Each structure stands twice: as structure tokens, then as C-alpha cells.
Amino acid sequence: MSSLDDERLNPNFSTIDSFDDAGEDLHMYDKPTTRQVQIAAVQLAGAIAVLALAAIGAIELIDPIQNAAYKIGEVAVYGPCTVVGLAILKTDIIGKVSQFIKARLAKVLIYVKVVEWQVDVIVGAFTLVEDIVRAAFIYTLIYVFTEAVIPDDSEYYIPRCLQFLAKRREFTGTQVEQIIHDVTGRLLNAYLCLEIYRFFLRIKTPKPFIHLNYDDGFLSRYLMTLTGRLDGTKGTIQYAGVYFLIDRIINLALMVVFTSQILSIFGLSLKGIAAVASVGALAVSFAARPLVENLISGFIIFLNNPFTVGEHITAGHVHGYVSKIDWLVTTVKTAQGSELVPNHDLANKALINESRLGRNVAAVQSLHLCPIIPGEDRLKEALESMDSTLHKHPLVEGHTAVWMNGTNATSGLFTFSVEFAIKDRPDDREETLKLRSKVLSDVYAAAQKCGYAVRGTVQDTK
Asked: What is the pTM of this model?
């Protein structure tokens, strides 16, 4: 699927911005040569072997370090260990090693023809492993640090103003260490729960440059639906609403499970909190009618599938692209910005889905331009010229719009969003893309006459 096609189906997708944000990840999924794979495989095997030896060595050193601490002194042994641990965290050796392994692993998997989004999931799982290793390392570092600075036979007293936090006022050094270890363990466990939750959410949002194919099965079609990559002019869109409904149910289940798990880590119960919350819910139940209406309407939208992410709709005063569908509201990207529309309004108004008309498919494209002459301000003139060219263009029909969608102070780029519709040809997709490119080229020429062009363009000002 071309970048132009991706932009038509998903107005939030911007080729330049997405690739810049992706950084090294973009090249991680390039098709490697046989030579690159051979080198990557050897490096990957070497890195895994070194990590395995390091893990075994660290485990074998635990007993000798503890024995040395008893004989020489905890400060003399655990002090240098703490310094080494802080140096490892400061230089982010764990992250650098993880990035090294992920880059080689991705090349090997792509070479053996693993589907790109599956490679992304595997690489994401390795990132999760990296977080687990880092959390375990931090716990070990805090354990060593407390052993080094807190004498076991020392005594500590809680101030009177803080006695409500504990049942007793006096604590030995060993008891303080145990408390610190327990609190650290609970916090790191909660952190890992959040990272696992984020991992499951990230699986459903593959990077824009990762190719998804409708024929790769249910999961691929599911991901295509969530990212707005299904073509609404074809029959492939018919189950999009069901996919969205499944996704919202999965989100709710994940949120309940991980919230319950995090609460249990701190000794709290989700049932108890729900019981307390139910009393407050009863008090506001009479004012919850709009909430229930939007919830039911959202369920109807998921089942009937009148539109999906990336499609262009018109409902009352709302005219734009669907960027997100939730239980209560739908986010529509219009010329004025993102608008939150209650699902009850969309379900009870006459709605036109222009992306499914076939003969007239709306499109939003982004042009990233900068002034040819630095410091020259002809922005208003450029917008008017681009809008006039688009409105009068023989290949364009229906609604048109040109607007500023943002600037980048660092690079000096202006982002112009161009919205237009042309007569589509479902039987000739390549010709359709050529027509869209022709329209964009003419709009760009109008902007260039007013002093705005792509970076690197030079104009003779003599």
C-alpha cells in the first residue's frame, strides 16, 4: 500500500512526521540482504550468549559477595557494587544492548518471511523483557544500597507527627531494610503491570510504515480496522464495526484485570472500591441519561458499522474524517480541528458516508513546505491561491478545503492540509492515484508561486 493511499484512508497519517518520529525503528523493518542476515544472526547469537554468561555469572557471584560482606563488612563490599550499578543505569547499558538485539532479531525474522506486524509484536515483547530486567536490576541495586548504608543493629524512631503511618515507633536497621525492600518490590510490580498493559495496547497500534495485508488473516484485518487502513469502497469493510466492538471489549477487560492486579499489589480490593463507588453512582444515576444514550448508540454504531476510522462523513454540521470511535463519543477531524461528537447525535441524524459512495472519495493530503525566501510572510496569499486552484481544478468535485495544520519552529516547515474529492475509479486504482497526484502537483505549484516549496528549493532573488 502506498503512502498516498495510507493518507487517504487515515488522515492522521503523515509520512514525514511518522518516519521522523520512528527514528531507527523505520530502518529496522527494511528488507535485509543475505549478507546482512548472516552478520545479524552471528551478532544475535553472540549477544545472547554473552547475556546468558553474564546472568549465570551474576547468580554465581551472589554467595561469594554475601560471604565477603560478612567477613570484610557490608559497606566495603556493597558500596562498590552500588557504584557499579548506578554507572550501569546512568549509561543505559541495558537499553543499548536491548536495541542492538532487537535490530538484529527483526532482520532475521523479516528474512525468514515473518509477517511485519508479527515482527513488531515480537520486538515489542523483547522490549517488555527489557523492562522486566531493568526492574529486577533496580530492585537489586536498592537492596545492595540499603545493605551498604543501613547498619543492621541501628535503631530508628518515627516522629510523633508520622506515627499514624505505623503501629510502632521503634524500628531496627534490619526492619527498615525489609520495609524499603517491600515498598520497592510493590512499586516495581505495579510498574511492570502498567508496562504489560501498555504492551497489549501497543500491539493494536502498529507503526504507520508497517505493512498490513487483508489476506493475512483475522488479526491483520483487525489491526487494519483499528488504524483506518481498510478500503471503504470495497466489501472488506463490512465487519469493521464488529472488530471495533471486540477491541472495546478487550480494552475494558484489560483495564479491569490490570487495575485489579495493581490494587491487589498494595493490599486493596477492587470489589471494596466498587462497593463504595456504587453508593456515589446511585446518587448521580438520575443525571446519567445522556451517558446511557451515548453508550447504547455507540454499541449500535459498532454493530451497524455506518462508518469506520479513516472514512469521510457528513452528519448535520459535522463534516470531516473519523479518527477514533469510542463507547460514548466519536472523534471527527474537520477543517477547524478535532471535534468530539456524541454517539447519540450520530446515531439519530441523517449521515452520509462519502468514502463508501465509490464515485466520490474524499481525501486529505499534507504538504510540508517552507518559505523559499527566509523571513518572507505570504502565508495568507499562499492559502488563498492553493484554495482557488483546488476549487477550480477540473479533476476535483464536491467539497474542498485548504488550511494550516501546524508549524515546526525548529525546521521552519509549514504543514498545509489539502482536502478534496475526485471522481474515483474502483476498477483502476493506479489511475486514481495518478489523478490525486496530479491535483496535489497543481496545488503545490500554486504554493510555489507564492513563495513556499519543499525544503532545499532555491530561488534566484536578483
From this structure: 0.60
